[in-house]
User: Fold this.
Amino acid sequence: MTTSQTVNKQSMYETVLKQFNKTADIINLHSNIRKILGITNNEIIVHFPVKMDDGKVEVFTGYRVQHNNALGPYKGGLRYHPTVDVDAAKALAMWMTWKTSLAGLPYGGAKGGIQIDPRNYSDAELERITRRFTYALGENIGPEHDIPAPDVNTNAQTMAWIADTYMSTISSSERSQNQHVVTGKPVGSGGLEGRDRATGFGVYLTIKELIKSKGENLKGKTFIVQGFGNVGYWASKFLTEDGAKLIAVQDAHATLYNENGIAVEELSQHSSPRKGSIKGFSSANEIDPESFFGLECDILIPAALGNQITDDNAYMIQAPIVAEGANGPTTSEGEKILLEKGVTIIPDILCNSGGVIGSYFEWLQNRNGELWELDEVMNKLEKKILQVFKKVQTEVNDSQTDWRTAAYVIAISRIETAYNQRGIFP
Ligand code: GLU
Assistant:
């Protein structure tokens, strides 16, 4: 897998700006709004010390980039990964703005994290790192201002630590009403039933709908997945439950192949949540990582990091559908090659939007003091994701364009309307 080791020819920030500028040209976006949306509002960098298990102190660097809040509070995940830096956070924050706008949510976009490999730290260290990061961010986050969520290598436990630290350090009169400072919390601590599977469910649903629109169904369709974290696992689970067959999986440590199908639950049990890897799974063969993208299949799901499908490998891809579970997995050059080959790309801001839609439901649940049941959540999620999917599909058909362009046109036009209505302060 081409991860941090690779020298990327095109950064994620360049990719998102290219996508934005292309759309701005298409919709003839007013130059004032083009200026505003082409830049991130706030880039917060914090350095903070944490005591390690051996008594030594390490200083960490954390980021939170807030791109735009024209439609509502900043919203987006926090990731713990060696590739986290200002540029990555800027790109990912912009993608969040487009994603929340496309989904019709009352949110803007943000992203952040810490530049670490969490596998190098104990759970106790990760807890102290997370708490001290939250403290360092201080009032830069807040339930009506900027609401983090899980992302790469962070999870419900991370969110619980953030919520607890935030609530313990703000003024006592506000403490009890602020658990919606983060979403993706554990169900016992204000989390939403089903938030864990929301992103993967959206990936599955958008693939299913696309295939349905071609008069086909998922039965017997083969798919391959890059990344077997939360998104890769849940998407695979829903797809296989609907009759599709997982034939290859790749993570940073191994690439597995089995033409008869890989058992999703068994693989998940093999690969433990945080430090685990799919490597060593006995019911599939380990193959050359370089051959992964070229495997014959019906659906390719990049569900790991950005910049994976590039002009170096796009020509190999045989799947007629690429469903972007990850954020920014395809560079503009990679995309050009895929589109020329007639591949349909379900773009990240649509394909993985189930996560932030689930987050919105959690935020509402907390704000209104309600508790929703799993069935109710899954029904609401399905309804909302299908609504967004149909909106993009209509734009694809009306404008005879690709799915990313269609999604961007809808997302950026909505923000433009908001600016036109409210004007620019002062
Ligand atoms: N990290 C997820 C994303 O990239 C979820 C963000 C959220 O729920 O705020 O969409």
Observations:
- The chain has 13 helices and twelve strands.
- The domain at 198-351 is CATH 3.40.50.720 (Rossmann fold).
- Residues 4 and 71 are 33 Å apart (CA to CA).
